[in-house]
Structures are given as C-alpha cells and as structure tokens.
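Can you give me the bound-state structure? Components:
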Amino acid sequence: MTGEGIRQAILDIIKEIVPDEDLSSVDPEKPFRDQIDLDSMDFLDIVMELRKRYSVEVPEQDYPHLLSMSSTVDYLLPKMESL
Amino acid sequence: MSNIANDIRIVITGVGLTAPNANNLPDFRKALLEGKSGIRMFETRYLPPVPAGVCTFDKFKHETKKAARRGTRAGSISIYCANEAVIDSGYDFQNKDRSRVGVFIGITEHGNVETENEVHSLAKYNNDVKFWTHHHNPRTVANNPAGEVTLNMKITGPHLCMGAACAAGNLGIIYSAQMLRLGEVDFALGGGVSESIHTFGIFASFKSQNALAHHENPAKACRPFDKDRNGIVVSEGGCMYTMERLEDAKARGAKIYGEVAGYAYNSDATDFVLPNPERQAECMNLALKRAGMDPEDVDILNTHGTGTQQGDEHECEAARTVFPNAPRPYINNTKSYIGHCMGAAGALELAGNIPSFEDGLVHPTINLDNIDPDCQLDGLVINKPKPVDNIKCIMNNSFGMLGINSVVILKKFED
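Here's the bound-state model for the whole set.
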C-alpha cells in the first residue's frame, strides 16, 4: 500500500466515524482534532478499524503518531506498505 | 400512607412518541381510530420471520449520524421522543436552567441488543476479544437511553432509567411526578422506550415459553382477549412526556394534556412470569385511593393485555374486581395495533388515549373477533371507536415480569 493508499484508507475510516463531516479539505499537516470532531473514543475506533481491516496493531504508546494525516501516514507506511 | 407533597398537582404539557404505526400523537390517534396496525413481518437472527412492530421515525431529525453510530437504538428513540416532546410543550428550552431538568425513562431491559450484536460480530474474528468494541460499556450501562438524551439536549439535571420490565412506561411518568413533587426538578422528561426487537433473544425466549404470537397476517397477530390469541408481538417504540408542576405550567401558559391524578406500583411476590390478579387489583385500587377517586370516576381503562392466555385472563379478573359496575369504565387495548412495545408500552398506550378528552371517542381493541369467555368485560370497546360524552379520566395499566404492576390515572385538566 502506498502513502496515498494509506491516506485514503484513513479517510475512509474517519468518514465512517464522523459521517456528518466534510473531509474533502483536511489539511494533512494540521492535527485531526483541530479540524474534525474526534475524541479519544473516536481515535480508538481508528485503531480498531486498522486492526480489523488491515491487521495492523497500533500500541498505546504510539497513539501520538496519529496526530495528523501526515504523521499517521508516515507512521503506518512501514506497517502497511507490504499490504 | 404518606401524603408528602401530594397536594402539588402535576400535569403533562408535551408528548413526543414513535410507535410502529405513527411518529407523533395526532397520527397515532388517527391510526388508533382507523384501526391501523403497525405490525409487519420482521427478520431477526436465527429465527424465521416473526411479526413485530418496527418504528420509522426520522432518526437524524434531532441526532447527528456520529452520535447515532456511537449510541444505541434505544438512545436514538429516546432522543427523538424527548426533542419532539419539548417542541410540543412550547417550553423555552434554550433559555431555561437545564440543571433543573430531569430525564426519567422506563426500560424493560437494556444492553441485550448491543451485547448480542457484539458477540455475533466477535465470532467473525474467532472470538479474539481484542476486536471487542470499546463502545460496549457506554452502550450497555443501564442509564444509556436517558444519558444519551442529556448529552443530546445538554441537560445537566438528574437522569435515570427505571428497569421495570413491561411496567416501565408508567414508571417513567410516576418517577417524574415524584421528582417534581419533591422539588428535585422543575421540568421532567418522563416516559419509556424499547429497542427490544433488535435482540433475537427476546423473541426466542418468548417462543420457548410458548408465548410468541404467530399469524399468517402480521396485522392480526396481536389479539388480546380473543379466544384464538397465541402470544406476544414484540415491538420497539418510545414515548416521552414533558411534565411540570401545575403552577409552573400555568405561569407560562402551557397547553395541558392532562393531570396525573394518581398512580401506584406494587409487587406480586408470587412468580417470575405469571401475573397475580389480586395484586393487580390492589395496585389499581391504590392508584384510585391516591387520586381520591372511586371506580365509577374512571371513564377509560386501558389494559395491559398482551395476548397471552393467562395474562389476559388474569387482568380481566382483576378489572372485574375493581370495576364491578359494568359497563363503565370503557375498556380498550392498544397492543392490538402496535404489539408490545415493552418499556415504552405503558407510556405509549396512555398517549393514545389522551386525545379522548378532546375528541370524545374511546379507541377500540382490534383483532377481537371471538371473545374468550374468560375475558368477557362488558365495557370492552371492540373493533370500532365508541363515542362517549364527557371523558374525564383514564386509568392506564402496565404489568411486568417478576411481578411488577404499575397504574397511572390521568384526568382531564380542570382548573
């Protein structure tokens, strides 16, 4: 999976969590929570969906990597590039 | 008997509801007068299609998709009904102190739907619990439906769900009246909800108990008092009332649907499932006593009757004891249209009768083609509405498993 593929995968997951929101203009460098109504339970949904859909584990100590789209893609690339 | 604060008069000032045949009170009343059933065949896990009552309210009228996804069906039903009730009440909700608002919702059960769905989902992952959702606990805590209302409406006063089996709808009303009388709240949202059709377990359990209704025409499946009745039709639904102390309602010029004249709830202490007519009669009599009324004062008795053999017979026996002077009161049953809405039943069934104060009609019991002689009640209104002059008082019965009985008496408001 490429970086773009991971970005789309994350967007698909977030879209399911916040179906009321328009995600077309998410700034990849800004924290998700500054742009989207996401709380800690929602981040756990992202972690769960990565586990369910891609068998990717995000340990709790790595949660800070899920801050923004860019940091998330950078973090997940080594875990998902072989998918 | 304690008379603490019983001189404080409590009134209903708004109604929000969703039933299998309507999503607001005027439509519900119309359906009841036209004999419109809300029962259809319904697919549920592991069972062949069963007759059930399904609600069609606009889930996203008052709730975001995000909140609905995170919450429960019972939460969505509660949010819809609570918002509709407040709108109906004309209460200036945005500018009121919402720490003085309480939410009190009767439930038959809560959490079965969410647990069952999650267990089913987990099986797809070889029962590896790392795939068990973190939403499970907030979805299944017993206060979930009422709590979701507070989150949605930014209510910071008390909230609670009363687990009271199928007597629960009345309990939401009773508890609201008590909290208003105690001065704990100034404005109460009280009623009952149910999401029970979304768990196969409730259908399967009634089936194993030989108490699940079946009929080739789902609209005919729920037939209380009929000799061919064969059990319960499970339904979802909700009904929330706004309730206030009379002086507060009058001060703001509120429309008043009726006054809670009396109520009671008690326990059979005899059986897990079989009702006890003696305790039911005691409960009705206690409600009358609290209301300062005689049996002759009751114009309409809305029965709990679910369409089971023993349940219907026992309730009729209790009604004959309390009301020996036939043909009054007129007697009807709402489940024959909408099935058993479980935690919502008591609240919804009362709502369907409230318009009688204005339109002078008693809605009938439908699907009653051949009355069971053991269910013979002279006041039964069968298959077509009955015009009655000057309807002033409704008694609403709701009974549940583990022997819980609840009765609410609502009277037409007269200053």
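A couple of observations. The longest helix of chain B spans residues 73-89. The domain at 263-411 of chain B is CATH 3.40.47.10 (Peroxisomal Thiolase; Chain A, domain 1).
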